[in-house]
Design brief:
It is a single chain. The strands form 2 sheets. Strands 2, 4, 5, 6, 9, 10 and 11 form a 7-stranded mixed beta sheet that branches. A 4-stranded antiparallel beta sheet has the order 1-3-8-7, with no helix packed on it. It contains no helices and 11 strands. By secondary structure, the chain is mostly beta strands. The protein is globular.
């Protein structure tokens, strides 16, 4: 079983930056598809970024150009750098993993989430 633990959430002012981290255990993240999701109050969970085992990334238009997903395989850690934050980015951010590595199909593992709050 893969365990995922997020950290780095907090409160920032609009326009500011924040980085959240996800430390994985039980498997090397280099073999996995990894992703960040978020869920705001009253809204559905949405994907904010994915990175496959080859390092290919994608982003929805809502965060493209502002958020960057990356990983440090030596530290077995996934990161999400968030810049130019907006109040609508306020959500609980979740780290997730998919065992195939190609980002196809369902997500197998989830972290506990970390709260990000952006004030105006």
């Amino acid at each position: 079983q893969v365990q995922l633990v997020e950290s780095g959430g907090g409160s920032v002012q609009a326009g500011g930056s924040l980085s959240v981290s996800c430390v994985a255990s039980g498997s090397s993240i280099s073999s996995l598809c990894m992703g960040w999701f978020r869920q705001a109050p009253g809204k559905e969970r949405e994907v904010v970024s994915r990175i496959n085992k080859s390092g290919l990334t994608d982003y929805p238009n809502s965060v493209k150009g502002r958020f960057t997903i990356s990983r440090d395989n030596a530290k077995n850690t996934l990161y999400l750098q968030m810049n130019s934050l907006k109040p609508e980015d306020t959500a609980i951010y979740y780290c997730a993993a998919q065992g195939r590595g190609d980002c196809w199909g369902s997500w197998d593992y989830w972290g506990q989430g970390t709260q990000v709050t952006v004030s105006s």
